[in-house]
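Give me structure tokens for this 419-residue protein.
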Amino acid sequence: MFDEVITEDERRIRDEVRAFVRDKVDRDLIIAMDSKEKEYPYEFIKAAAKENLLGLRFSKEYGGRGLGWVSEILALEEVGVLGIALGCAYSLPSIVGEGIAKFGTEQQKKEYLLPTLQGKKICGEGLTEPRGGSDFFGTNTTAVKKGDSYIINGEKRFVAGGIGADYFIIYAKTNFEAKPHKSLSAFLIDRDMGVKVEEEYELMGCRGMGAARIVMKDLEVPESNLVGELDDGNAVFNAMMVPERLTSAAGPIGMGRACMEIAVRYADKREAFGRAIKRFEGISFKVADCTTQLDAARGLVYRAAKKADTGKWCRKEVSQAKVFATEAGFTAVHEAMQILGGIGYTDVYPIERLYRDARLATIWTGSNEVQRLIVQNEVFQEILSEDKTLKRDIELDTPGAHKTEEKVYTEDPKKYYPS
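Here you go.
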């Protein structure tokens, strides 16, 4: 698996979550969610909370375990085996909790974060708007100050927990003159403040998570529910994008792994033309390629988690992990279905459900196209900023150095600008 690079403590938490997934999650719940008989997995959240498995990274004071990001992604891979809906339910306390833990007041941590990690409150987040999609900072939802409150108007769509959540972290425009990145603020909004469900979505996968479009009309939200500084929603958003995208990366590895395990066992027993189909390279090479990609995905996710634990800027690493892991996970599910053939296309095995689930992973929490945009932007900034530092540090009177209007080169440019 990945035992060579994780600590004994990290192995223990992985094994603990694996046992929870195996022994304490009712398979009938998954079937009920997928068949749309269940609108939200409350019992799953309560069961995970009972085992103290929600928000592993947060301090014990607020219901977590004070562990690192690596422990959390190991847990997410195990939960990912169950599919994307329960993976989403498991990760939301981490995502929403990040905003509260880093930017919230002590009162907000006690009133929202603590009961969330105890399984007493269900959280959700409102990011996407009907006209915006990935244009997050084009938000049209507004929050206008009125006395000691804000009056909020707008709508959000594709809200996991739109049906089911007790409260949401919502971004709204508070500065109508500033540039987009300086115009938004984050608020904690309770459902009973007046949040209305306008539409529940019929989804291809990720069923049973209450995905809906919610509307806020003249909601009065206390000023004390502002998260972080006014007009600084950008900082809250960027902090939440680390757990948003890292959890999105780890879950599909679990989905891909589960499907590969099914495919390998099937290929060992299924015979065609007088021998087990694992003996055909058309089958065995799929297994080789998919397991290699899944292991590579673990490496990228692990690296991003390690950097996130340092508190350093890790936008590039997180986006790389999200792109590669979600695509590797989907490929593994896809090829597992191909190995099983017709029976894989039925509900005899969970592969067809995981196929529908895995397809979403490359779309949500910032599409993979957006992640590639982020990666290339970070790479250009890194390399070009190094160029500027190099230019500043080279003494212009060094023998062999040649000055032009824009660049300074040493005798061996390839030393600094490798092809």
